[in-house]
Amino acid sequence: MERMSLQLPNFVVVDDEPNVCAMLQRYLVRRGCGVRTATTLEDGRRMLEESPTDILLVDFRFAWGTGDELAKWALSTGRASSAYCMTGNPEPSVVVSAVRAGCSDVLPKPLELARIDQMIEACSTEVTTNLGDWMSAIAPNIYGTDPEFLAQLRIVRDAADTNSTILIMGESGTGKELVARAIHDASLRAHGPFIPMNCAAVPDALLEGELFGHTKGAFTGAHASRDGRFLAASKGTLFLDEIGDMPASAQAKLLRVLEDRSVTPLGSEVPIEADVRIVAATNKDLDDLAAQGQFRADLLFRLSVIVIRLPPLRDRPGDIVPLARRFVVAANERLQREVEGLDPGAERVLGEHTWPGNVRELSNVIERAVILKKKGLITPRELALRLARTPSTPGLRPAQTNREDAAPVRGPRPVSVSAPSTLSGGEIAEGGDERESLNLRSHIDRLERELISMALERTKGNRTEAAALLGLNRTTLLEKLRRASAT
Asked: Could you say which of 67, 179, 341, 361 has the lowest number of CB atoms within 10 Å?
């Protein structure tokens, strides 16, 4: 597969005013673009002969010749992908000459930097198209046009064909396993196995045996030797999901594996070579955990050779409706339905939702809507049935963890946070009278405790993420937790 260039566009600037060249060079370098400058048409042509460019910016009038001549030559010979003429006198004859030469536009002086930004964006769009071709071939289930999301996918593409360890960070439902599979499928290990393992789903006492294997008799119930996930993933990729939940003892052994590239099964003293690439993922802030002593800093360094940070869906508003349309098509095929798409009201509802469950939640919402609608256009009615059950802070039980940063809030067990049912006028608080049930402050305090508990559960005890979900800063959340613990 041909490897596409990921660089921002390169510029050649040709202008007989050195201050114009210097200004553009400073600005383009700050934007991360490559730039070469020349003050004569001859030097500009020589630069392009030595190496072509993405964008040629050339002044129109020179002492000997005009810039449209250089632009026409550069475009016709492939020495520039696009060209723009600059002029302090944008009279019609100049514009006509530049357009006939193939220039995309004529830029009046003094230059507007916003117009330069548009050029960069336009050229980056072409780069994005190339990235889209790569995604279609390797990861057709991954879609996005958000600039930050695409920037992370470019890192994925660049790192995929190496053996470097990769850490994928992102909230639940952002597509971490899909990205991990794309890394494997685009790697030199694509012919080998892809072995996923959720570190949070295996009891601590069994995790080391699952990872590293064990010999017969290594522990009670070990009636036969068994290879662990590391050996099962030999010559392939081992995907360690929720690595932030890995216990300290397993962290130490994983660090040794990464350093020595060998695995010692439980009950054995003989190391076995482990030809495995590690891709890890987490929805926790490992830097915070390392600072608190909950995660080994040396292991974090080993895992963070390449870091992918997947943005939450709420930070990709332009991707919500296009993703939903793709999910409608997929659900139609899978469920044998004939839903035509989304009506404008449904698209508006989707855009207004905060999507705490991210892309996974959106997929589930659309699947349910397709099931209910069967054919025609999905309306807010079909979506509301699902969205009513997914408030921005989901109703989940309090976080159960012994981490200081994730101490559960004391208070009642969370219930569905629906204002009409929680604050209905006829509801009597347990053990109280009607006057107590109508006390606004007590209801607000109870609702606040429930929302905090839900946010902590949603973020698996990470107070920084919980504060973000609640729209609070971390200090405010900690103060509320202290007050709740004191009551």
From this structure: 341
